Amino acid sequence: MAVDSLPLPQAADIPEIKLFGRWSCYDVQVSDMSLQDYISVKEKYAKYLPHSAGRYAHKRFRKAQCPIVERLTNSLMMHGRNNGKKLMAVRIVKHAFEIIHLLTGENPLQVLVTAIINSGPREDSTRIGRAGTVRRQAVDVSPLRRVNQAIWLLCTGAREAAFRNIKTIAECVADEL
């Protein structure tokens, strides 16, 4: 009986979830309409840390539901010496977001979303072969591939900029964004 009489938590009682305890995802806008379903930053995907240990690769298109900051973090864990070091990648993203916030005064999540929208390619070329001859054909890029390539390009650019450089990887990620 006592369980039935407890009041349900209201929307005002639930605390706002902020990334790293600092940045809210509620005011982040995805300006590109085609990418709204593939850049997940809304309240449903809000996390304190970009580490959910989710199984996003088990079904097709499920990685579109992975929070965008976690996808950036996972992409930073590439290239041999950084494989599997997720805590290091989370720390890099946290420091990069702090640098972005200090330099621009904006929400780093909004800066990340804008960078992904701007750096994703809209058109690509594919090989079409006929009777032994191969030619390149221009094709449109799907929204999920645009997001994937944008994240990959941002991480690769930051990694190459930080290699043999006095700047830290977090500073290079902040510069790329």
Automatic annotation (TrEMBL):
<protein>
    <submittedName>
        <fullName>Ribosomal protein S5</fullName>
    </submittedName>
</protein>
<dbReference type="InterPro" id="IPR000235">
    <property type="entry name" value="Ribosomal_uS7"/>
</dbReference>
<dbReference type="Pfam" id="PF00177">
    <property type="entry name" value="Ribosomal_S7"/>
</dbReference>
<dbReference type="GO" id="GO:0003735">
    <property type="term" value="F:structural constituent of ribosome"/>
</dbReference>
<comment type="similarity">
    <text>Belongs to the universal ribosomal protein uS7 family.</text>
</comment>
<keyword id="KW-0689">Ribosomal protein</keyword>
<dbReference type="InterPro" id="IPR005716">
    <property type="entry name" value="Ribosomal_uS7_euk/arc"/>
</dbReference>
<keyword id="KW-0687">Ribonucleoprotein</keyword>
<dbReference type="InterPro" id="IPR023798">
    <property type="entry name" value="Ribosomal_uS7_dom"/>
</dbReference>
<dbReference type="InterPro" id="IPR036823">
    <property type="entry name" value="Ribosomal_uS7_dom_sf"/>
</dbReference>
<feature type="domain" description="Small ribosomal subunit protein uS7">
    <location>
        <begin position="45"/>
        <end position="177"/>
    </location>
</feature>
<dbReference type="GO" id="GO:0003723">
    <property type="term" value="F:RNA binding"/>
</dbReference>
<dbReference type="InterPro" id="IPR020606">
    <property type="entry name" value="Ribosomal_uS7_CS"/>
</dbReference>
<dbReference type="GO" id="GO:0015935">
    <property type="term" value="C:small ribosomal subunit"/>
</dbReference>
<dbReference type="GO" id="GO:0006412">
    <property type="term" value="P:translation"/>
</dbReference>
